[in-house]
Amino acid sequence: MGKILIIGAGGVGTVVVHKVAQNSDVFGEIMLASRTKAKCDVIAADVKSRYGVTVLTAQVDADVVSELVTLLQSYKPELVLNVALPYQDLTIMDACLEAGVNYMDTANYEPKDEAHFEYSWQWAYKEKFEKAGLTAILGCGFDPGVTSIFTAFAAKHHFDEIQYLDIVDCNAGDHGKAFATNFNPEINIREVSQRGKYYDNGTWVETEPHEIHQALNYPKIGPKESYVIYHEELESLVKNFPTIKRARFWMTFGQEYLTHLRVIQNIGMARIDEVDYNGVKIVPIQFLKAVLPNPGDLGENYTGWTSIGCRIKGFKNGVEKTYYVYNNCSHEAAYKETGMQGVSYTTGVPAMIGAMMFMKGLWRKAGVYNVEEFNPDPFMEQLNLQGLPWHELHDIDLEL
Length: 400
Ligand code: NDP
What we know:
Blueprint: E1 2-7, H1 11-22, E2 27-34, H2 37-51, E3 55-59, H3 65-75, E4 79-82, H4 89-99, E5 102-105, H5 120-123, H6 126-132, E6 135-138, H7 146-157, E7 161-171, H8 185-192, E8 196-200, E9 203-207, E10 213-218, E11 222-228, H9 233-240, E12 246-252, H10 255-266, E13 275-277, E14 280-282, H11 284-291, E15 305-316, E16 319-330, H12 331-338, H13 342-359, E17 367-370, H14 377-385, E18 390-394
NADPH dihydro-nicotinamide-adenine-dinucleotide phosphate is lined by residues 8-13, 34-36, 39, 60-63, 83-86, 88, 106-107, 141-145, 183-184, 187, 295-296, 344, 347.
């Protein structure tokens, strides 16, 4: 049993708190801290009424290292689970080092003034965490997270050599809104509007945004147009599984979504620099976030499924084989259990399982690691128990 501090009271944070409370035999004490304490209190009250578990709450500005250190030194958690925004990764890692606390997150660091994400900033902390004898676990949501663990599981049990990896992420849900993002709109729009990029024979190939696309068939869903975009787990997976020749990430988008996205970009509402509006400095994408539906409120009318998995081709015992491992998650079931839609659910459940792996001593080593560097087996076991069951298909046509 170990004390956990969860930072960030958004959609993902809500699911994490529910799942941690459901597994209170593993987590000794739970605290939720965020920029707005009132949001933490609402979640804590809901969890108390559903499971009878007490969640402490606190206010913290995670951009400020000294505030974080004060909180860590007074609460003394064993692990900080960062589900605030990627902008806060480095300040929280700094505070963890100063206060001697272990660290975990679900998304890699992004500077606020540059829509660019890569692991180099966080990997640079490896030696500091090693010297401090602390564990930092990076990218423990669904993608990155489960997709990375699916790959590690495939490498451990089904392949001697993985050569082709295609991560396929389909959200076939319907929330009934003309346009909404499924997680933080600022982070989401920055991610999906950037240039495409994939790994091919040792080099990174760049494309125009959404240039490569084709229809892929998803279990229980059918064909959906899928687009190659850059996604952060590709960077660590090709490093940790060097036999990979080609690695791509595919995400489905509806035509309506892409049209809105194009208009948002063309009229300048995706800009991340400050503009002057009647003497007030505003960042257009942050203003846009304020007027778009809150992803945390989409759950109530959300129907349909997400389907995320890995399609892998390679060799086992000298024989070529294909393998597809995936999870389908129902938005309605996710909402019924936690009050949140499937995208927050598929991120929050793996984050809790990662924290459980740490607390049980199964994923602990001093340094900074991506999730695929740990034993995937106990994590895969928990996915089946905690609401994200997975399925395997062997030697099928991968369509790719
Ligand atoms: P939300 O915007 O719903 O929630 C973010 C929360 O962080 C809010 O409660 C916000 O506070 C809080 N926060 C923001 N800035 C600060 C700060 N400076 N100090 C303290 N708290 C702060 O986002 P989501 O829940 O949708 O996403 C959370 C994280 O999960 C993101 O990093 C996202 O990239 C990641 N993610 C990962 C996925 C994966 O599969 N790996 C998939 C989806 C998301 P306030 O309420 O006051 O605004």
